[in-house]
């Protein structure tokens, strides 16, 4: 029975009734109409209006809090900005709702909830092999990569999700297409314009070569692709483009130059130079890191074989630990380098290893002498006293501290 | 049948050809082209891109250690080729957001040996299954251990001094203490031998870090307790417990992290955009391993030394499986 009492007879037996669809509160004893609906409420009527607790109002059924609504809205906006297919939006929203039910997320700071939007979109894209980098999302969200990474790892663990790795092939395709070098434009000289298909296929081959040569594992994927795109572009018309630097290339193409791309470029050129040494007609040319660019086309055509020829298997070599004395045999300027007999390989091939393993190893730390500490030895007083201040030192210390903290007189 | 056509194509490709050219970049099926089975890359690349359903005659993930030698040799080729298709299939499944059991579902109808299939035999590297079964307890091969011993780098332990402490007084009377209440509510004390650092809280609880062995950690904690005693507090030494042990070692060969994350999806997390190493959460024992491309491995989360050694012996065969044959 609704609470409140009848103003006429004072009875508390009020019943909700409707008279021609207008809700009324009627006293069941005397029949007096206590309240008569929304349109006409007198002052006394309003006094009889009951306050409704949240648990009995409709608000309880709307489980979506305002911040969650805001978050869902942001997810939709992000999907639209990124021009993702419509199914992605539904999946991302489902993930966001699922994440929101976790207590750790519901009580988190706003910053984390904002970053969570990006995490859900990223997970959706990864599961559909849509190449979206974390850097791109952080830029869009104005978020810190550290905060993003923490939230991302947490949510993947809490929801128990299986997120596939970034698909490198798709990343190359999307990233390459973003370079503004495929159509004539006032800021780009004509000789720099390139055909998109040719550049894309060559970049893919170079990235694949970099992957085989251990330049991709453990590193951020994007700088490698930048370096590969640059080399592909240069090698398609070396005579005109060798003079253009990596930084200028990125500026013309209207793409940010990631910092590690410079060193990736050098590493990739190093690999190509090693491969070039296996081709007889290139050996005589004594190539360096600039001139090898002109021959990238040839090198890529035979990249599998050249890679195998140019490098010993790093793993096998470390295992056997033999250093076969391979003197640099005289250069075989044969007509067909492919049929070089095995014993007449030019200059000893180097190891195909990740660059971090090729750097000179730090002085092998001498294994610490096996300590015979038992943990229960006696502790001498003198040893402990070396850590304590004498009373005089304590006084001096306090005096000094007081002197420092005294505010300077005006 | 479409499947037969693919099978024919693949078998033709395998008929001892040389470079097939850049038609199919092997890059984008990372489980395949690491030269484990065939010396020539293009063939593996070619097969890796075929979506062939595994036929029932496929022995890819069967642990061949139970079978006599002749049978092993015979099945080597099939296991090699079948496995690539297996890993390729798993890759294709990725798009549906598998939660970790992709491998087991693909191989479940094949394996009689269950958990045993996870480990390759060290003396038969070519017969190694590249896509091991999802198993919670990787078993060790009976024959050999790695010969590498992880070195302990850090031990974290806690002890209860069981008396309330006046941190200001400690900071005043001890030379090796620092105390900045605005930054952190504990005294940071250091001793030279064993070289360690301790956090001493006003409740009497203490955390000791930096020791290289359990005994050294205990000795260091006792020394800190003695310092506190000498400062006039009735400190005791209750509930000494090692909370965490960190160790590191080097397997001395490079590791294809992309391959490892594909085959051990449910345990590994590899995000090169965030961190260069692969984070492997082993279930038994419960240890977290950081595996880097250079072959260095960091093990953490152990409460006992034996857990570290066990974890390394578990991971070593898995890592060896990614070495080129």
TrEMBL record, chain A:
Q: Spell out where the chain crosses the membrane.
A: none
Q: Where is this region: Disordered?
A: 318-381
Keywords, sorted A to Z: Activator, Metal-binding, Nucleus, Repeat, Transcription, Transcription regulation, Zinc, Zinc-finger
- Fetch the InterPro entries from UniProt: BRF2-like_C, Cyclin-like_sf, TFIIB, Znf_TFIIB
Q: Where is the composition biased (Polar residues)?
A: 362-374
Q: Name one Pfam family in it.
A: BRF2-like_C_cyclin_rpt
Q: Could you provide one GO biological process annotation from this protein's UniProt record?
A: transcription preinitiation complex assembly
Q: Where in the cell is it found?
A: Nucleus
GO cellular component terms given for this protein: nucleus; transcription preinitiation complex
Which GO MF term does the entry hold, naming one?
Answer: zinc ion binding
Q: Where is the composition biased (Basic and acidic residues)?
A: 318-332
Q: Which Gene3D superfamilies match?
A: 2.20.25.10, Cyclin-like
Q: Where is the TFIIB-type domain?
A: 2-35
Q: Subunit arrangement?
A: Component of TFIIIB complexes. The TFIIIB complex has two activities, alpha and beta. The TFIIIB-alpha activity complex is composed of TBP, BDP1, and a complex containing both BRF2 and at least four stably associated proteins; this complex inhibits the transcription by pol III via its phosphorylation by CK2; YY1 facilitates the TFIIIB-alpha complex formation. Interacts with TBP; this interaction promotes recruitment of BRF2 to TATA box-containing promoters.
Family to which this protein belongs: Belongs to the TFIIB family.
Q: What does this protein do?
A: General activator of RNA polymerase III transcription. Factor exclusively required for RNA polymerase III transcription of genes with promoter elements upstream of the initiation sites. Contributes to the regulation of gene expression; functions as activator in the absence of oxidative stress. Down-regulates expression of target genes in response to oxidative stress. Overexpression protects cells against apoptosis in response to oxidative stress.
Q: What is this protein called?
A: Transcription factor IIIB 50 kDa subunit
Q: Which organism is it from?
A: Jaculus jaculus (Lesser Egyptian jerboa)
The primary gene name is Brf2
């Amino acid at each position: 029975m609704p609470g409140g009492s009848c103003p006429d007879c004072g009875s508390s037996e009020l019943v909700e009734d409707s008279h021609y669809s207008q809700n009324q509160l009627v006293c069941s004893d005397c029949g007096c109409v206590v309240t008569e609906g929304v349109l006409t409420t007198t002052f006394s009527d309003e006094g009889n209006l009951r306050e409704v607790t949240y648990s009995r109002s409709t608000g309880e059924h709307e489980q979506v809090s305002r911040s969650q609504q805001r978050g869902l809205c942001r997810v939709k906006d992000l999907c639209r900005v990124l021009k993702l297919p419509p199914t992605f939006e539904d999946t991302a929203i489902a993930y966001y709702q699922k994440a929101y039910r976790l207590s750790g997320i519901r009580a988190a700071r706003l910053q984390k909830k904002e970053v969570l939007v990006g995490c859900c979109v990223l997970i959706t894209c990864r599961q559909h092999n849509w190449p979206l980098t974390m850097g791109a999302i952080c830029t869009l969200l104005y978020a810190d990569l550290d905060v993003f990474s923490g939230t991302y790892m947490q949510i993947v663990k809490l929801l128990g999700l299986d997120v596939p790795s970034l698909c490198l092939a798709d990343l190359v395709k999307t990233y390459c297409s973003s370079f503004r070098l495929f159509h004539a434009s006032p800021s780009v000289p004509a000789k720099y314009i390139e055909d998109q298909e040719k550049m894309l296929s060559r970049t893919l081959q170079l990235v694949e070569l970099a992957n085989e040569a251990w330049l991709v594992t453990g590193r951020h994927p994007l700088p490698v692709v930048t370096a590969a795109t640059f080399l592909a572009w240069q090698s398609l018309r070396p005579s005109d483009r060798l003079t253009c630097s990596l930084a200028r290339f990125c500026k013309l193409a209207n793409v940010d130059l990631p910092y590690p791309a410079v060193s990736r470029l050098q590493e990739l050129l190093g690999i190509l130079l090693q491969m070039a040494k296996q081709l007889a007609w290139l050996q005589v040319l004594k190539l360096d890191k600039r001139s090898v660019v002109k021959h990238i086309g040839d090198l890529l055509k035979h990249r599998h074989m050249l890679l195998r020829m140019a490098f010993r298997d790093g793993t096998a070599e470390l295992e056997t630990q033999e250093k076969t004395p391979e003197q640099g045999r005289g250069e075989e300027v044969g007509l067909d380098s492919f049929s070089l007999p095995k014993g007449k390989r030019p200059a000893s091939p180097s190891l195909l290893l990740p660059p971090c393993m090729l750097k000179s190893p730090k002085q092998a730390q001498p294994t610490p002498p096996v300590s015979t500490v038992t943990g229960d030895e006696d502790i001498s007083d003198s040893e402990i006293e070396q850590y304590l201040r004498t009373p005089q030192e304590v006084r001096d210390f306090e005096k000094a501290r007081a002197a420092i903290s005294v505010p300077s007189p005006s | 049948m479409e499947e037969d056509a693919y099978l024919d194509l693949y078998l033709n490709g395998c008929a001892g050809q040389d470079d097939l050219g850049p038609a199919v970049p092997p890059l984008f099926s990372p489980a395949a082209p690491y030269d484990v089975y065939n010396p020539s890359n293009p063939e593996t690349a070619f097969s890796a891109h075929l979506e062939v359903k595994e036929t029932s005659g496929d022995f890819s993930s069967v642990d061949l250690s139970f079978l006599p030698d002749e049978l092993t040799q015979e099945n080597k080729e099939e296991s090699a080729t079948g496995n690539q298709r297996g890993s390729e299939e798993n890759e294709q499944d990725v798009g549906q957001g598998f939660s970790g059991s992709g491998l087991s579902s693909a191989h479940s109808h094949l394996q009689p040996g269950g958990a045993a299939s996870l480990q390759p035999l060290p003396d038969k590297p070519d017969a190694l299954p590249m896509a091991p079964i999802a198993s919670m307890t990787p078993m060790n091969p009976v024959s050999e251990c790695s010969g590498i011993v992880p070195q302990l780098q850090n031990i974290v332990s806690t002890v209860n001094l069981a008396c309330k402490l006046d941190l200001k007084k400690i900071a005043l009377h001890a030379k090796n203490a620092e105390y900045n209440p605005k930054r952190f509510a504990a005294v940071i004390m250091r001793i030279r031998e064993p070289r360690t650092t301790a956090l001493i809280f006003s409740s009497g609880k203490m955390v000791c870090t930096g020791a290289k062995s359990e005994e050294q950690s205990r000795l260091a904690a006792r020394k800190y307790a003695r310092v506190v005693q000498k400062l006039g507090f009735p400190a005791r030494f209750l509930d000494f417990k090692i909370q965490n042990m960190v160790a590191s070692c080097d397997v001395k060969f490079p590791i294809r992290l992309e391959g490892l994350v594909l085959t051990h999806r449910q345990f590994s997390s590899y995000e090169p955009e965030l961190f260069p190493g692969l984070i492997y959460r082993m279930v038994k024992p419960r240890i977290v391993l950081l595996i880097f491309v250079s072959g260095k491995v960091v093990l953490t989360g152990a409460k006992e030394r034996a857990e570290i050694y066990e974890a390394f012996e578990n991971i070593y065969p898995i890592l060896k499986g990614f070495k080129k044959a």
